[in-house]
Design a protein that fits this description.
Elements (H helix, E strand, L loop, with lengths): L2 H7 L3 H7 L9 E4 L3 E4 L4 E4 L12 H14 L14 H14 L3 E5 L2 H12 L5 E5 L4 H10 L2 E5 L4 H10 L6 E6 L11 H11 L2 E5 L12 H5 L8 E5 L9 E5 L1 H8 L3 H4 L6 H16 L2 H19 L11 E5 L3 H13 L2 E2 L1 E3 L7 E5 L6 H19 L9
Parallel strand pairs: 3-12, 5-6, 5-7, 7-8, 8-9
Antiparallel strand pairs: 1-2, 2-3, 4-10, 9-10, 11-14, 13-14
Bound molecules: 4'-deoxy-4'-aminopyridoxal-5'-phosphate.
4'-deoxy-4'-aminopyridoxal-5'-phosphate binds next to helix 5.
Amino acid sequence: MSLLLERCASYTRARDARNAGLYPYFLNFDGRDAGTARMADGREVVMCGSNDYLGLSTDPRVVAAAAEASARYGAGCTGSRFLNGNLDLHDELERELAEFFGKEAALVLTTGYQANLGAISGLCGPGDLILVDKEAHASLIDGARLSRAKIGWFAHNDVDDLADKLARLPRRGGVMVVVDGVYSMEGDLCPLPRLVEVCREFGATLLVDDAHGGGVLDKGRGTSAHFGLTDEVPLITLTFSKAFGSIGGAVLGDADVIDYLRHHARALMFSASASPANTAAALQSLRILREEPWRCTTVADNAAYMRRELSALGYEVGAGSTPVVPVETGDELNTLNAWNLLIEEGVYVNAVLPPAASPRLRTSYTAVQTEEHLGRALAGFAAVRDRVLAVPVVPAVA
Ligand code: PMP
């Protein structure tokens, strides 16, 4: 067998977990509604593991917009926006996103992953330097790698370390600093005011991936608006797969930057455009979000309530203020066990294992969960508590 295929044959991590009956990934859902999901085996679970922060992915208005767009434009665009896959819907979404988020222009790509790839590798190249927060999302890292710029790392949310690196690293070309607005696994915010300050001091271009803050913080206007710094952040990226209940992504920035990316972002130019259904759904979600800012307040309230109640039950939860609430579970085996115990209780969360992050359960909340949904989730956490917390929580190793 070739060396490469031998690698696959000797990969046992997933197989071992499956054999032990503990494998928590690639599960089928048979149906979903606002607060629950039906698993393929018919079990109904309370959903505390989606990114549907505003509950829009199943909103009838969003679903209808997707269906209407499919009927009008077809199921797919069959090509990239650059050549033959551009719709008035894409342009309309860009105009409304730019206006809502307070930037001059927007560029819509097919996923948030591609938005990051396109923005970073479209702007940076050999001779440039990209400094990346150590906890940054994989798509930011992949975008940096694709660019062939030099990559440096700074400790998570440590602006002093960043400033130190900026001062010391050899520089010839441009410098980009890349962070998440809200970190997807821990739910913590980036220290934006100081990041802006240091980037200004060293002439670096800041990119904030607001996949988890866009549509959620500051009545949906995101992390930069939350800090009152939208004008100071030259590049913001978004995904439509979370608060917007669809699929797609966008880069927001000055008009000349966005026009440059239109002609340099390979992730845009060489991949088919977001489908009519997904584009229309994202546009409809944006319009609903504008009209219904209560969704942002309710998701924050639900997450704060769960953070409080889970700690009262004895769980160690993250200290953030976003809809992402990590629950410490110690080691990998205990994380898998905890996940399985919770699913038996009808509570769906995400089991997170390295290399994504240190072992934990990632729970996340939405604007459409009712008291009854959250009560069911808490009852599940209470029922499994003694077995989950029997294993001491080891402090996470970075
Ligand atoms: N950035 C962050 C921080 C994310 O969490 C994700 C999705 N998990 C992405 C980007 C990629 O978004 P998409 O699902 O639209 O590709």
